[in-house]
Amino acid sequence: MANIHWKRIVVKVGSALIAPHKKGCSSHFLLGIAQFIANCRAQGCQVVLVSSGSVAAGRHRFANVTSPDVPTKKAMAAAGQADMMATWDKLFDFPTAQLLVTHGDLRDRDRYISIKETLFSLLAHDLLPIINENDAVTTDKLKVGDNDNLSAMVAAAADADALIICSDVKGLYTKNPNIHDDAKLIKQVSHITPDIYAMAGGATSDVGTGGMQTKIEAAEKAISHGIETVIVDGFDPDSFNQLLKGQNPGTLFTPFEQPMQEHLHWMLHTSQVQGELIVEDDFDADLEQHNTQLTSEDVVAVTGKFSVGDTVLVRKGDGTKLAKAKSNYSSCLINFITEQEDGDFANDVQHKTGPLISEKNIAILE
User: The Aspartate/glutamate/uridylate kinase domain covers which part of the protein (predicted)?
Assistant: First the structure.
């Protein structure tokens, strides 16, 4: 890691840093982060801040509520969002801007592009975008669920060079450091494997919703887009001093040398599958090859309801996932074609309209 070689970074801050005592927002642990952001901007590095904490910030305003239901949590988010923004705003001597999003916004291609355009415009006018999931209105179907993964999606949308995820530990350990004295910090990860996920364990904070596993998921999304990712201890001001010196204070995830194309990365990591095309277990065609077409003869079943242009999962009957792809047909029409006893008729219909999935919008799954 060279000394602030980044041109644009995303910094993710969690609820435990925003409201550590569950009594509203506190700037105690945010001062060092704010100073780091200011220093980065002073060195010509653009910053996008992804900040959790609206529910935690608003919880204290709902007296005697120990186990809030979903509507109450949304109300807490509505109350806390203003406090959270006010807390951040007072820590900076430059203008900030609030951007609230849902997964529904990100997974819709047109709205995703709109978010990108808004981000670039804010950065071009030297404002600090502060992004959070719109917890006050989102539903289970439309939410990301944790701001670690949201920060990776934002980093991809912002074409960031680096993603810095603030945690309550220094980084990824071989074991849970709160339980095992012999746990060792892993300073660098070149490949995210099942063993890496196995080390992640669960959440150590009872304030936020994302543990180390969601941070690994976020890192996997980011590095596949060519985005350097670092997990650091957000409670330790020295973490940010080291970053400013070009040092690694936590766990560094090195990015892919050949990042995925932007639209394929969005399809694989951000878009939501609306249905499935199930093929025979012995299906072995290379879907990435443009001369290979997925035909009605290959599909044995269709699940879900989707429209033309929606993202679908192509998988084998045994559950093996092959690809996410853009569908050229609605589920209704594919069902109609595949159920025809007259194979010549089905092939004739498809011949006139093209392959089942878009040849240029296929993200292969490992």
Answer: 7-233
Q: Are 161 and 288 in the same domain?
A: no
Name the E strands within the chain: 8-13, 46-51, 96-101, 128-133, 162-167, 188-189, 228-233, 251-253, 275-279, 299-304, 311-316, 321-327, 357-364
pLDDT in tens, 155-192: 999 999 999 999 988 999 988 887 888 889 999 999 99
Domain boundary among 246, 265, 284: 265
The one-letter amino acid code at 150 reads L
Is 213 annotated to bind ligand? yes
User: Is 167 one of the annotated binding-site residues?
Assistant: yes
Tell me whether residue 209 is annotated as binding: yes
The pLDDT-based confidence of 345 (bands split at 50, 70, 90) is low
53 assigned ligand-binding residue: no
Q: Is 353 annotated as a binding residue?
A: no
Question: Is 292 flagged in the annotation as binding?
Answer: no
Question: What's the CATH code of the domain at 277?
Answer: 2.30.130.10
Domain that holds residue 122: 8-265
The reply to whether 52 sits in an annotated binding site is: yes
352 is in an annotated binding site: no
Last residue of a domain, one of 265, 284, 315: 265
The 10 Å Cβ neighbour count of residue 97 is 16
pTM flag (> 0.85):
no
Phi, psi of 220 (to 5 degrees): -65, -40
